[in-house]
Amino acid sequence: MSEIDTTLDYKFGAQTLFALRHTGEICGSNGLPLTPKSIGILGKSQILKTFKHASLATYLDFIRGKHERLLIVSEFKKQNLKSRLYENKSSVIKIAHQVLKALAYLNSNGIVHRALCAENILLDEKGDVKLFNYGLYHMTNNGLDVEFPIGSVKYMAPEVLVSVLNKNYISGPKVDVWSLGIILMEIIFKTELWPKLKLSQCLRKVLSLIYCDDVLSRFARESDKMQIYQEMDSDLKNFLESCLQVNPKNRSIPEELLKHKIFEGVTEMQFINDFEEENNNGHPLNLWQLHELYYLWQLAGGDVHSELKRNGLIKTKPPILSVPSLILLEGMSFGHIKDPACMLDLKVVPLSLDALTARLKHINFNIYYPLIETKLHLINDLENSDKELENLPLIIRERDTEYQLHRIVLYKRLLQGYPYTRRRIYHEAIKDIPPIFRGEIWAALLDVKGDIENEYIAIDKETPIPTDRQIEVDIPRCHQYNELLSSKRGHLKLKRILKAWVVNSQQYVYWQGLDSLCAPFLCLNFNNEARAFASFSAFIPKYLHNFFLKDNSAVIKEYLAKFFHLMAYHDPILAKHLQEINFIPELFAIPWFLTMFSHVFPLHKIFHLWDKLLLGDSSYPLFIGLAILEQLRDTLLQSGFNECILLFSDLPEVDIERCVTISSNLYFDTPRSITFRKFQLNSSTDKLPYTLTEDMMSEIQKELNPRLDVVDFLELVNSRDTRSNVLVVDARSNSEFGEKSVAGSINIPYESIDFKNDISSGIPSSPELSVLINNKGKMIIIIGQTASEAAKFCSFLTNAEFSKVCFLNGGIDVLLSSGILTQVNSY
Amino acid sequence: MNFEEDDTKHIETFHYIFPTLTTEKDQILEIPIEIPFLGLVSELTKRIMENFSLPCYIEDELNGALEHFIKTQTIEYHDRVAVEAIENVQNNMVDVEDIIKKWEKLFKEVVHFKKVYFSNIKYYFINYDFYSQETTEYAEKKISSDNEVFSNVYHKLMHSGAALQTMLQVEQSYALAASHVMSQRNEQISSLTAQQTEEITNALENTLNNETYINEMVAKHFEDQNLLQGRWNSEVDTLKETQKREYREWIMKLLEEYQTNNTLSPLCSPTSPTDIPSFSETSVLGGSSIPMMEESFTIHLGSQMKQMHNIRIMSADILDFCRIKLKNDVSVNPSPQRLQTALGLYSNDLCGLVLLNDNNDLSGFSGLAKKFYEVCDCSTEFHFPGVLEQLETLKIQIKDAVSWRNSCQHPGNLTTSEQQSRRSGSKHLQTGDVFLTKHSNLSSVHIVFHMIVDDSLRSNEINSRHSAILGLRNILKTACLNDITTLTIPVLLMHEMTEEMTVAWCTKRAELVFKCVKGFMIEMASWGGSDLKNLQFLVPKGISEEVFASLATMLPSIFRVSNPLVFKVSSTPTTPKIKARR
After folding, report:
1. B305:A327 CB<8 A
2. Distance (Å, rounded) from C-alpha A48 to C-alpha A138?
3. CA of A598: which chain B residue's CA is closest?
4. How confident is the model at residue B45 (pLDDT cuts 50, 70, 90)?
5. Superfamily of domain A703-822
6. Do B447 and A323 touch (CB under 8 A)?
7. What value, to the nearest 5°, has the Cα angle with vertex A39 and ends A37 and A41?
8. Beta carbons of A165 and B98 less than 8 Å apart
9. Confidence of residue B250 (pLDDT cuts 50, 70, 90)
10. pLDDT higher for B267 or B31?
């Protein structure tokens, strides 16, 4: 490798502005508190991040500060057309072409720039255009959500100026064409328009144009540039004239203007060429998508807020100097001194990448080009450096620049290869999921593929349906602390996805809780509704199969019964206590499972919880439920029924990382067949080992302890690893036991037990009893004459606080063909 | 010309004709579409296809036609609106001057003269300097910017460490000097009063004196009193003014010194007040005591996202939050509360206090309000106008506010009938209205919310729509929007225990206030202001221990207390291993 430039030039900059504050009233017409305007702006601005165009400065981030402040981060270039206004005549056509291309792209996305001026046309090193600040008008709801006017007066089209008194006025694409005309004219005439005029004079100037037929010649005359005007190429003159038409009817839109004669032979900007050029010399990070780079920059300690502050753009007066002095009961306040620092100043502070470069200086460039399919010793070495990091808590890993760099590099490759790399993605997700790709990785884990875009488009999300009302009631109550979800845009998107799901799943109905269930997907895929919908629709059958039937009582009943079985299996003391105070799972666990905990926890916790959940099968949520109870265990054991109800009505803080660890330990410590449910979605590989009849179902639900399937039984008994941890108790009579029994099992006949007493006096003293007591903590499998006998024996043991108690489904008969039965000589 | 009419909703009808395979006749579609169209054209196409069960072979064409239609209609719509607006001006239906005025207002109100602040930044965008050359426009702001400079200097010095001690000591010695003068004043006034009382008594005893004589004597006494008080008051005022001026000058000098040497000479106090009287013991400005009962909780609010807050319930005299303990020896460290308050004065963590006030016109001083003003007046206010001066300014604002109220159309927080009743009211403030005063010379408070209340609060029957409760909500909102993160609220909405405040009364009132405040706090979370970190519920001093205890136990049942940290002792205690180090 030859000389490599290891420095990264700065690539993005930050600005700040204030949203309009609500005055007076605090409640909207629906009785709910008004959403702050800054949230509305945040919601509307998200779409801007998806715009990728060679001539647009990409938007990277929007951050909401305190007191309605907004911070905007976007791609940024030092040079702009204003600073190079007079040297550019030769490239006028190129600039016009690129600006129009960018405008046409924006228009096709329904966006008007409105603030087009020379300063907002950035120029990169090669003199190519990067349009800037183009999202301002859109994100501020056409300027309604901010106090300041959008645009600069001398570039404003006449119709914008005269419409200032009309609150409903919305600018169309042609206003930008006028602005472009003025800018180009300045370049061609080599003059700055009205540099010394006051605002009011400037306004008068533009307003006087509405009586003018030939704006171009008038400008030429006024600025004493008639010579240039007369010598101007006729095509160019014609082009400028078509931009500077006072009557919008006669002005063209950007898309049409691109077809103008002067652009004949203009080469399109090649996006790909840039890449190759930079590819040869430069830091590999230069090739990264800007938002990924920005993400790393943040991890490396980059803080937009403090950068702006350092540059004097966030400067606030001490609050005590501006408090109001009088507040009427109506909510109106007086004497509040407006902080002049709140006024608009859209200066851009470039964000330096130095800290990031320094942080990544020592990293071998090979890291950036991982080999996915082949293993080399070299690569292995690099991977080893990650090994120690892997043992750190997730929270730390998620904030570690270098670790995330590795993860991003790797996952980027893997996601490019999806769906062929699905196994590998799954495998890597066991370690962790980098937050920046979480939405995509979740979709991959849920096996979302195909033309999801068009499938989503095809679903009717507009036509009113009966559940609309309920959806509309639920949405403003769904994770509203989250800025995106509480925005109007967020509400709209959530509604669309929910409606799409209801329409698309005819067999199901909308149950409250679906909104919470959908929230994490929307939050992760805010700009990709189709993926949010597809992930959401794949998630439900996997984990909540049939939970949203109109009558879901049977499904839920079975689910909760299984939950209780598991509780008895792993924590007999707690199960016993809850049973005694009659605090059944129906009282607290339905919202847990119906929303997969998304109703219970804040989103950032859901993300970590579901990162693991998505790796498990449909029984995994049961273990999460157990892990939550584990954290409340001490309180629960001391509480009676009423205290428990109170406790669950407002759940205390739960440590999610601990919850994740414990649930996965429990998951691996439980034979699969224990959690088999009739109503789970059974894939071909994961079939129920036995058919469940209705009778058996109701029996099972009455039982306290789970049943074990013969397959698991044989595996446990036959494997050398597990055999020593399993105690098989045969509850049949002595004679039957003698005839045929599992080798190594002990015999405690059902008839001999006195169920009214506790364990030591309930079972007649015998060597078997001491074996049983000595093996407390091992897995105990009861083989009974009948299921009910075995179940009763089990619950007897559970009440005696024996854990891991279950019984063999089908009794001894299922073992007949297995060959593990032996004959014991009876006396 | 009426611009208010809602012309953004605009419907155009889309026509589409397509042939079918089965019949000769062409099918005609007519679809009304709102322009500008906000959805996705492709979704609209799908819906049309579905709803009319159209044959799939026309889908692409239909989509294209729709796209084209919407595009041209949108352009036409924009053109129409724009042309209309321009023509309105051309035909003089709209006054150009109105337009110019509106733009000027928009730009000037919002766009700032940034030359003053940010002259050294390299990259300028949308250079609005251009529009705001008339700096005279901003002349009135100069006064406040003076304060701003001082606040910056003060804050900087306070947090420099080196100057902190000195500054507080200087403040204290100033306060002592002021209190000395004031105690002299009080002494003289009371001795005069005593003397006059004696004279009157003597005169009355002497039956020879007729009524006129007595009257004359009373008149003379009155005059003497006024004279004496006036003299002293002007002396106090002069002293305070001098102190304030000296102090502020000194602070500015201190900064210079600090910046040049980066150190401070230990006691470079201003013309140190020489005649500090020697009190034999700690003197308290206005008398003070420590809170009697107190209990604290850490709570969290919110169903999914939990927000932590500290809540404290305490029984104390509300003025204890204001009074400063003065120690005679200026070199003794100031109290920790005072230190905290001084450090926080210009920070984003202000302390507020709700004081109930039953006089609605700010003039007749009586009761607690009067005592409060006295406490404020005990020492010089170095940062803000004195409290009485603040009240004078307020009176002017009240006039504006009352006229606003009488002309206001929007009921705001209130129902229309509630507002009607207030509008017909007096030209004074009414129950639930709040005025604010700011202070730098109180013990642990920066901002005092004076809420106007009336006798209706004595009743047991108030509910969550009572003006005082709504007033509390406004207070919490103001706190949230102005970085007041510690707030003390008299939870019973009473400052003293009275006869009718039975146990049941107290419990009911406390429950109401707790619940309402909780609701307001949850509401506040979405306002994007600062969180209320410490909320203190104050009950009057005379409350019985049982009632206090029952109110304290009510708190954790209304607010959800955070998970307590439980230390478990394992059954086999392990001895901590400490490695010996050499």
Report:
1. no
2. 9
3. B304
4. very high
5. Rhodanese-like domain (3.40.250.10)
6. yes
7. 75
8. yes
9. confident
10. B31
d(CA A298, CA A399): 9
Interface check for A63 against chain B (CB to CB < 8 A): the answer is no
Taking contacts as CB-CB distances below 8 angstroms, the residues of chain B near A323 are 436, 438, 447, 478, 482, 484
The one-letter amino acid code at A185 reads M
Above 50 in pLDDT, residue A327?
Answer: yes
Q: Is A29 on the interface with B (CB under 8 A)?
A: no
**CA dist., res. B73 & res. B69, Å (int):** 6
Distance CA A565, CA A702 (A): 10
Q: Residue B18 pairs with which residues in a beta bridge?
A: B27
CA distances to B175, B195, B206, B442 from B233, in Å? 16, 20, 35, 21
Q: Which residue of A has its CA nearest to B59?
A: A458
With bands split at pLDDT 50, 70 and 90, how would you rate the model's confidence at A803? very high
CB contacts under 8 A, A 308-337 vs B, are 311-313, 315, 317-335, 337
How many CB atoms lie under 10 A from the CB of residue B86?
Answer: 24
- Interface contact flag, B526 A33, Cβ < 8 Å: yes
Q: Which of A319, A486, A600 sits opposite B482 (nearest CB)?
A: A319
- Going by CATH, does the domain composed of A553-686 fall within 3.80.10.10? no
- Taking the domains of chain A in order of start, what are their residue ranges? 12-76+274-358, 79-135+148-267, 363-445, 452-544, 553-686, 703-822
Inter-axis angle of helices A488-504 and A514-524, nearest 10: 120
Please give the Cα distance from B456 to B440 (Å, whole number): 33
In whole angstroms, what is the distance from residue A208 CA to residue A218 CA?
11
- Chain B CA closest to residue A336: B482
Q: Is B151 helix (H, G, I), strand (E, B) or coil?
A: helix
Kindly tell me if the per-residue pLDDT of A429 is higher than 90. yes
Q: Could you give the count of Cα atoms lying within 13 Å of A472 in the half-sphere of its Cβ? A: 7
The ipTM assigned to this model is 0.86
What would the pLDDT profile of A270-306 be if each residue is shown by its tens digit? Answer: 544 444 444 445 677 878 889 999 999 999 988 999 9
CATH number for the A452-544 domain, one of 3.40.50.2000, 1.20.1250.20, 1.10.8.270, 3.40.50.880? Answer: 1.10.8.270
Domain A79-135+148-267 grouped into CATH 3.90.550.10: no
Q: Which string of DSSP letters, residue by residue, matches A289-349?
A: -HHHHHHHHHHTT--HHHHHHHTTSS----GGGT--SEE-TTS-EE-PPPPGGGSBEEEEE
Three state DSSP letters for A135-201: CHHHHCCCCCCCCCCCCCHHHCCHHHHHCCCCCCCCCCCHHHHHHHHHHHHHHHCCCCCCCCCCHHH
Distances (CA, A) of B306 to A63, A643, A644, B534: 21, 21, 20, 16
List, for residues A381-402, the tens digit of each pLDDT value. Answer: 555 556 677 788 888 999 999 8
Among B48, B98, B123, B347, the strongest candidate for a mutation testing the A interface, having the largest count of A CBs within 10 A, is B123
A645 in contact with chain B, both atoms CB, cutoff 8 A: no
Tell me the pLDDT tens digit for each residue of B82-104: 999 999 998 888 888 999 998 88
Q: How confident is the model at residue A331 (pLDDT cuts 50, 70, 90)?
A: confident
Distance from CA of B59 to the nearest CA of A (A): 12
What is the structure's pLDDT at B566? 53
Q: Which residues pair with A161 in a beta bridge?
A: none
Domain residue spans in chain B?
Answer: 10-94, 154-266, 295-325+336-386+429-561
Percent of chain A whose pLDDT exceeds 70: 90
Q: What is the CATH number of domain B295-325+336-386+429-561?
A: 3.40.220.10
Tally C-beta pairs within 8 A across A and B. 328
A165 at B interface, C-beta within 8 A: yes
Which residue type sits at B581?
Answer: R
Q: Using the beta-carbon criterion (under 8 Å), do B78 and A170 form an inter-chain contact?
A: yes
